[in-house]
């Protein structure tokens, strides 16, 4: 075991899994994504709300909206910053900033 690496207890941020996430887009708009234990999600941006299923595949988090006019999209999380947020890049090249607001079931 290498002893040179310091223990990183304060930055144990989960970049996926059940919980509530704040998503900030390049234009400054902010949405909220809530992922549940059962693999479903609800996303709210302004007056619009969407639902669907979320899966993890090949290190990516993939969202499959229930709405027929929306395509599924997979995202790759980047390095978690000191503020606890991280960039996430979609398969189409869109980049958002994500921050976990709370873990599901956290007390």
Structure description:
By secondary structure, the chain is an all-beta fold. The protein has strands spanning 19-24, 30-35, 40-45, 48-57, 60-65, 73-77, 85-90, 95-103. A hairpin with a 4-residue loop joins strand 7 (85-90) and strand 8 (95-103). Strands 1-2-3-4-5-6-7-8 form an 8-stranded antiparallel beta barrel. The chain is globular.
Quick take:
By secondary structure, this protein is mostly beta strands. Helices cover about 0% and strands about 50% of the residues. It has strands at about 20-25, 30-35, 40-45, 50-55, 60-65, 75, 85-90, 95-105.
Topology diagram in text:
Layout: E1 19-24, E2 30-35, E3 40-45, E4 48-57, E5 60-65, E6 73-77, E7 85-90, E8 95-103
Antiparallel strand pairs: 1-2, 1-8, 2-3, 3-4, 4-5, 5-6, 6-7, 7-8
How would the global form be characterised? globular
Relative strand content? over 45%
Helix content: under 10%
How would you classify the quaternary structure? single chain
* Discrete helix count: 0
Number of E-state strands: 8
Biggest sheet strand line-up: 1-2-3-4-5-6-7-8
User: End-to-end distance, in Å?
Assistant: 33 Å
**Which class of secondary structure composition applies to the elements?**
mainly beta
Weakly predicted, low-confidence segments? 4-11
Q: Overall mean pLDDT score?
A: 86
- The secondary-structure element order is EEEEEEEE
Radius of gyration: 15 Å
Main sheet properties: 8 strands, antiparallel, barrel
Notable characteristics:
8-stranded antiparallel β-barrel, mainly beta, 107 residues, 8 strands
